[in-house]
Design brief:
1483 residues; alpha+beta; ten-stranded mixed β-sheet; nine-stranded mixed β-sheet; 52 helices
């Protein structure tokens, strides 16, 4: 594109120019390579695929591509990728606007040859037409269902001896029906959300010719579906009151959508399950954020004179028909190539290239709250050539094309170019000039974002539906099955093998016996059924399959469905997991994996919105060497808890002091200046001494320093001020970063209020006086610069550069040789702030000369107009001016944790669960939060994995170096040992890794070494990671260590890891619920995870494991009693029991006890489960359900079947039994009565023995179920319709032998089990047995006291025994002998001495030479007037600070006073290196 450069005028540029930083992430090579699963998705146009296929492509995503992070493609790979795209029908696309398609772009029918996906999306698995066949196909992928169907088919052939085939089909029909209903309900919810989303309104240009698509090119199948849908809609509308259809009323169409859509927005934006798996684009890499009125947009920094040089997409020679208009339509009708107009607060319906906006300079603001939970704004820019397009008639007059790359998943990169012929308006019919303008991600609005602070945006659609970046990233929802369910298939196979052996034995014996001849069977049978021995054996085999079918019980699957449904209901009904603030209970989305919650070993958590509230609060500041602010953070509480301090008392006392200070500060602010913009409830910076210093009590020097500091906060930012009218008025700030909004809000609270933007700068209200400041340039923040600057022309015509950023960045740019004492003091304060878990920034300034600025600005203009390496050149120019800074001070902001997060993490750790944090935040922020939530402490060595040159070889060297610390090499033998070891690692090491390095170590060649290294670390923090990398880390751990994993997050960027984990948990936040729709469980707060996992998960796992074992046992007992009987009837498959016994055995006689065992059994209460989290470890080691347990129960069942059958058999063997009337009772039916009641009583009693909780309900069920067989026998045999069973009860129950056999059978059957359990519990007790004994002894009675929770008790166990009140400086106490700022940073109890040797220290030091902080103590006092007063918060953190580990100081990402004190100004980073290699801070 041709662009002319303009000379900078002598005066400052007008209006504001800003440096835009691209949103691309830097990485190594091979950027255009996409995941295999994504290519499959594109090829299938959004159709679902099997889980097996999804897993087969997952291996690629675990390698070097990992989510399509933008990288530089190699030519050969790019060409290969393009070829692959063409093969898939998704190659580069060229869109035409008001230009006829060339011949090579149309088919023989004149329709466009390139077809695009519809904008209608469907995340549901089924349609009304496909539900029945598709659901049946899924259900009969279960081998057991196929087996039962086969048995039903067999039963329809009477030759195999089945008496009632229809009745045999009932169990399978019931389970298929119940499962289908459950699937239909779950899928219906998705369908409703899909329909609401597809029918959302948008203004689309109609009555113009979009040549890129053809309305006539619609398949017959779609036409049938559309006709059916229209018919159903008409019928529905006739049944209900008619509703207004968007677009029917033209006048209402202009006003209603923005009004009605606004009211529906909260509901609509929470249903974006389809818009999942976006990265935290907003938080990780801030986009440029221009204020309205700025001129700098794409390449040049000037207003209208420069705009003309960029040309216009409008053809002045083309006339508009006047028919086209923007019409309110549905999202699903949006097509590629459409013009759309979006209004403020609208949601983006597709991927749209911006042509123009309501802002004269083409800026607009988007919010990604629906994608990642963030409320901060990002800026996007219209094309320079499209800014004249305002109305529908302008759209008709455009003539241009867009050459776009194919759909791809990288959310940070988009490449296209707009081409047009620029004609002279004076001679429109003359030859024009071919022009082009590149289109980047900064010119695109992605589907799922919301337009904010912009009246309207006009754009063209380039990607729709499943081709949009968000939908490509969403992946395919996997079908999850619990681990026990997967292992259960093997047990079913084992039983099936036993069944085949039994049937084979029966068939062989029967065939051989018939073939022998000359035996009794010839006298009692009227010929064989088959006519020959071989056929007789064959028929007997299949008859035995039917007779012994209970060995592979279909009733087990029905019972498991019932149990899991009840477990899901109890989880939903648990009031302890109900979040009242948003009226949200714990909601199970998947009902069939509750037992997996009891086996979780690794939890992968997002940070923002999951561990934290994403609410930034300005807490502390250090200005001119004076610390201000009172706060009591979670990290400080954690440090005090490790020292044995009663944190509850200490915290209450600190909060009381803070409350008093808050009241005093508000009073002082009102006295100094009655600030109308201060709202008392919004004040977070509690520092009464700051206000007194502002009033001049500490002298003019400190007063001036405080004013300059707050002025810097009010001027150096990119926020947008929104004023809410009222008395008093309220000003709120929208910012790219929540931190930035917190800084500006604090400046407002103390009297430096940002009122808004003027045409060329910013307006402030300073202590009641309105002032305007001209913003000359704004150099934006990005992840490599780690700073931002604003160049301001002050009212007195001075030019000041204000700079804020990471402490190491600012310190390296301070003026050499100056402010040594201030630098030392500020560094010490910043370290203490950081160790409180606060996010720290440094503030500095520099006064520029007029000539110096004008010279620099010309260089800046040249860099901003560059097309090649533009970002690198801009960074180099920015680095030149950000030198020789003067330090003003530092800030400390708290990213508030959610309630109970540290306690929950500590409790999970005690249970043996390892928590990894996968976040898009920067390393420093993640480390601070790690301290706050007890993931990190100062006793740990921090391993920072950072590969500088982006090569696998360097990454391997780095991993080998760290593995050597643990005497490991990363071998296969070590991996095998790691898979068997479930013990938590020692709390000696923690690992931190960023996204670029993570991409390298996830390469298949290094993945095993990285996994083993992480296995040795107590905490793992992965920073700056994409959604695909999150999923890759989860897959690595899940597959590499063969463990159960759980992922928890709140945003759409967490969906990938939620779907990858065995259990996915979504947090239903106040701002968005995208993760909830893809999760298996949804909770309101992170703290509820402890109860979900440690209580319900453990209960469900133990219950289900015991239920399955007992179910197999009872069917073995019942089936083998029938098998033993076959020995004595030539294996002719004669039924031992009356057929009603066989039908009612699983249905009534034994079903309720085992089902209620799975639903209600409880070894310990919920409070004890939380008080003793170590009980959970049996689940981690998967000891409740093992193959050993299965076979022991099987052997026990076979033993009991032998006892039950042969006790009765031996009673009958001596002779005939005759009743009082002379009739014998030795027939088959009555012999079965001798066995059946005893067997049922034994089974139910056995289940009771294996039940922990003997409450009245369980006892009642066992008794009723056992007596039911007697009841049924008596009632049923009383009717003549029972045939041979008639009067069996009166005849058998009257015999003393029956009662003797029954009693002996019960005793002999249960005796071994009873004695083994007694020996085990007395001599080899499990942990739960010991805890249950302690519960009976009353050692846990305190948990039932009101107001004392189990968690509180557990978390205070470590401190109550040694808790004491420490003397804390009050407002009236200080140390007279030495200035408080000069007191040692460590209290005497933890001061470095010979006795504080740390055996884990890498350098072997005994601690006596630890002097890295000593210079700050030994310096002569630097007296300031305000230092004599007591500062409780400052003293409290000093008193509780324990020694920092050397590894933290070696990390550039953690604030260290010693590190900053040694840091000298480097003046320049070398911009290309910092951009390309993401270089470290210069030290």
């Amino acid at each position: 594109m041709a662009a002319s450069n303009h000379e900078e005028p002598d005066d400052a540029p007008n209006p504001t120019k800003r440096l835009r930083w691209a949103t691309q992430r830097l990485g190594a090579k091979k950027a255009t390579k996409k995941r295999g699963s994504i290519m499959g998705r594109l090829g299938h146009k959004g159709s679902t695929s099997s889980e097996k296929k999804r897993q087969s492509t997952g291996g690629e995503s675990l390698g070097t591509d990992l989510g399509g992070i933008q990288e530089e493609p190699e030519p050969s790979e790019a060409a290969g990728e393009e070829k692959a795209d063409d093969q898939e029908g998704q190659g580069p696309r060229k869109l035409y606007f008001n230009i006829p398609l060339p011949p090579d772009a149309v088919d023989e029918d004149g329709h466009p040859s390139q077809h695009f996906t519809r904008n209608k999306i469907r995340t549901a698995k089924y349609t009304p037409i496909s539900f029945i066949p598709k659901n049946l196909m899924f259900q009969f992928q279960n081998v057991a269902n196929v087996y039962f169907l086969f048995l039903i088919i067999l039963a329809f052939f009477s030759i195999f001896g089945a008496s009632n085939p229809g009745l045999n089909a009932v169990p399978l029909i019931v389970i298929v029906f119940i499962t289908a209903v459950k699937d239909a309900v779950e899928d219906y919810r998705r369908t409703v959300l899909d329909n609401e989303l597809n029918n959302s309104p948008v203004h689309r240009l109609i009555d113009w010719n979009n040549v890129n698509v053809s309305d006539d090119d619609i398949s017959l199948w779609r036409r049938m579906k559309k006709a059916t849908s229209r018919g159903l809609v008409v019928l529905w509308r006739k049944m209900k009151k008619p509703k207004n259809v968007p677009g029917k009323d033209a006048s209402a169409a202009l006003d209603q959508p923005r009004g009605s859509y606004e009211t529906r927005e909260t509901r609509d934006t929470r249903r974006q399950s389809a818009l999942t798996a976006n990265t935290r684009e907003s938080l990780q890499i801030p986009d440029p954020h221009e204020r309205p009125g700025t001129a700098f947009s794409y390449e040049d920094g000037h207003r209208s004179p420069a705009v003309k040089s960029f040309g216009s997409l409008i053809n002045p020679a083309r006339t508009a028909t006047g028919k086209s208009r923007f019409h309110l339509d549905y999202w699903k009708n949006v097509k590629v190539g459409d013009f759309v107009r979006l209004y403020n607060d609208d949601q983006i319906p597709a991927d749209v290239v911006i042509l123009s906006t309501s802002d004269p300079d083409g800026a607009c603001y988007v919010e990604t709250k629906n994608l990642d939970g963030e409320t901060n704004l990002k800026v996007r820019h219209a094309l320079r050539s499209g800014r004249d397009i305002k109305h529908a008639r302008d759209c008709e007059r455009t003539e241009f094309t867009i050459d776009s790359e194919p759909p791809q998943a990288n959310l940070y990169q988009y490449s296209a170019v707009a081409r047009w012929t620029q004609r002279n308006p004076k001679t429109p019919d003359g030859a024009g000039e071919e022009m082009a303008e590149p289109v980047s991600i900064n010119n695109m609005l992605l589907r799922g974002c919301n337009l904010r602070n912009t009246e309207w945006v006009l754009g063209v659609v380039v990607f729709t539906g499943f081709d949009t970046k968000i939908m490509i990233n969403s992946g395919i929802t996997p079908s999850k099955r619990s681990r026990i369910a997967r292992e259960l298939n093997w047990n079913v196979i084992y039983n099936f093998v036993i069944l085949i052996l039994m049937c084979l034995a029966s068939g062989l014996y029967q065939g051989i016996y018939w073939g022998l001849g000359d035996n009794s069977i010839q006298f009692f049978e009227y010929g064989s059924i088959g006519g020959k021995p071989s056929l007789d054996g064959f028929i007997t085999f299949w008859a035995a399959i039917i007779l012994f079918q209970n060995l592979v019980p279909i009733s087990l699957y029905i019972s498991l469905e019932i149990i899991k449904t009840c477990q899901a209901f109890f989880i939903y009904s648990d009031t302890e997991m109900y979040y009242e603030k948003i009226d949200y209970p714990c909601t199970p989305k998947s009902w069939n994996i509750s037992d997996d919650l009891g086996q979780i070993e690794y939890i992968f958590s997002d940070k923002t919105g999951t561990l934290t509230q994403n609410v930034m609060e300005f807490k502390k500041a250090t200005i001119n060497g004076v610390p201000y602010g009172e706060a009591y953070t979670e990290a400080q509480a954690g440090m005090q808890k490790r020292q044995g301090i009663d944190v509850e008392k200490e915290g209450a006392r600190a909060r009381e002091e803070i409350a008093r200070g808050r009241v005093k500060m508000i009073e002082d602010i009102r006295k100094l200046h009655d600030n109308p913009y201060l709202h008392d409830d919004d004040l977070t910076f509690v520092a009464p001494d700051f206000i007194t210093d502002m009033a001049g009590q500490s002298g003019p020097e400190q007063q001036h320093a405080n004013e300059q500091f707050m002025l810097a906060l009010a001027l150096c930012h990119t926020v947008i001020a929104e004023t809410t009218p009222g008395d008093p008025p309220k000003i709120e700030f929208k910012a790219q970063s929540p931190d930035e909004a917190a800084l500006v809000a604090t400046a407002r609270d103390v009297g430096f209020t940002v009122l808004g933007n003027s045409t060329d700068g910013i307006r402030l209200n300073i202590q009641g006086e309105d002032r305007s400041f001209k913003v000359l340039n704004t150099l934006e923040f990005n992840s490599t610069r780690k700073r931002m600057s604003a160049i301001i022309r002050m009212p007195d015509n001075r030019i000041i550069l204000y700079c804020k950023g990471a402490d190491s960045m600012i310190y390296s740019r301070l003026k050499r040789g100056e402010q040594s004492e201030l630098r030392r003091t500020t560094a010490e304060h910043l370290e203490m702030f950081a160790r409180e878990g606060l996010r720290t920034l440094c503030i500095a300034q520099r006064e520029l000369g007029e000539e110096e600025y004008q010279k620099w600005n010309k260089e800046h203009e040249i860099a901003s107009a560059a097309i090649a390496d533009r970002e690198d050149k801009l960074e180099a120019v920015s680095d030149v001016i950000e030198r020789d800074l003067t330090l003003l001070g530092g800030t400390a902001i708290e990213d508030r944790l959610q309630e109970g997060v540290p306690d929950t993490i500590a409790l999970l750790a005690e249970a043996g669960i390892k928590l990894w944090v996968l976040t898009g935040d920067k390393v420093e922020t993640a480390i601070n939060i790690g301290f706050s939530c007890n993931l990190l402490n100062n006793d740990m060595e921090l391993i920072v994995v950072k590969v500088e040159d982006d090569t696998i070889a360097s990454a391997e060297i780095e991993l080998d170096k760290h593995l050597a610390t643990f005497n490991m090499t990363g071998s296969d033998e070590e991996l095998k040992a790691a898979r068997k070891n479930h013990e938590p690692p020692a709390p000696t090491h923690a690992i931190v890794i960023d996204g670029d390095s993570l991409k390298l170590v996830l390469d298949p060649a290094l993945r095993q070494k990285f996994l083993l290294l992480c296995k040795q670390c107590k905490s793992v923090l992965c920073c700056r990671v994409s959604p695909a990398q999150k999923a890759a880390v989860v897959a690595m751990v899940k597959g590499g260590l063969d463990v159960m994993t759980l992922s928890i997050g709140d945003g759409a960027n967490d969906v990938a890891m939620i779907q990858e984990a065995d259990v996915g948990v979504g947090i239903a936040g106040e701002e968005g619920r995208q993760a909830v729709m893809s999760a298996d469980y949804a909770i309101g707060q992170f703290r509820f995870l402890q109860r979900l996992v440690l209580v319900h998960g453990r209960w469900s796992y133990r219950r289900l494991a015991e239920t399955i074992a007992n179910f197999f046992y009872k069917n073995i007992v019942w089936t083998f009693t029938i098998f033993w009987y076959q020995i004595y009837c030539s294996f002719d498959q004669t039924y031992l029991y009356d057929y009603t016994y066989i039908l009612l055995f699983n249905l009534a006689f034994t079903s309720l006890p085992v089902i209620f065992m799975g639903v209600l059994d409880q070894d310990v209460s919920d409070k004890v489960s939380l008080a003793v989290p170590q009980l959970y470890r049996r689940g981690i080691e998967r000891l409740e359900w093992t193959q050993r347990k299965f076979w022991l129960y099987m052997i026990d069942g076979m033993y009991q079947s032998v006892i039950l059958f042969y006790m009765a058999y031996l009673a009958f063997r001596p002779g005939n039994f005759v009743t009082h009337n002379g009739l014998n009772i030795d027939d088959r039916e009555r012999f079965g009565v001798y066995i059946a009641p005893a067997a049922i009583l034994v089974i139910n009693t056995y289940i009771l023995l294996n039940t922990y909780r003997w409450d009245w309900l369980m006892l009642l069920l066992v008794i009723v179920s056992s007596l039911l067989v007697w009841f049924w026998t008596g009632v049923y045999s009383a009717f003549k319709s029972s045939d041979y069973f008639y009067k069996a009860a009166t005849e058998v129950f009257a015999q003393p032998t029956f009662w003797a056999v029954t009693c002996l059978s019960i005793v002999l059957s249960l005796a071994p089990r009873f004695f083994i359990k007694a020996i085990q519990k007395i001599y080899f007790p499990y942990d739960v047995d010991i805890i249950r004994e302690q519960v009976r002894q009353g050692k846990f009675e305190h948990l039932d006291k009101p107001g004392k929770s189990a968690t509180e008790d557990t978390m205070s166990n470590g401190s109550t025994s040694t808790s004491y009140e420490i003397a804390k400086p009050s407002k009236h106490t200080h140390y007279p002998s030495v200035d408080e700022d000069q007191r040692p940073i460590y209290p005497p109890s933890v001061a470095p001495t010979a006795t504080t040797h740390n055996p884990r220290s890498q350098n072997g030091s005994d601690g006596t030479e630890f002097t890295r902080h000593r210079p700050s103590v030994d310096q002569p006092p630097y007296n300031r007037p305000s230092m004599d007063r007591a500062r409780p918060s400052y003293d409290r953190i000093r008193a509780s600070m324990d020694r920092i580990r050397p590894s933290y100081e070696q990390s550039n990402d953690f604030t260290s006073a010693a590190l900053l004190t040694r840091l000298e100004s480097s003046h320049s980073f070398g911009p290309v290196q910092s951009r390309r290699n993401n270089s470290r801070d210069v030290q």
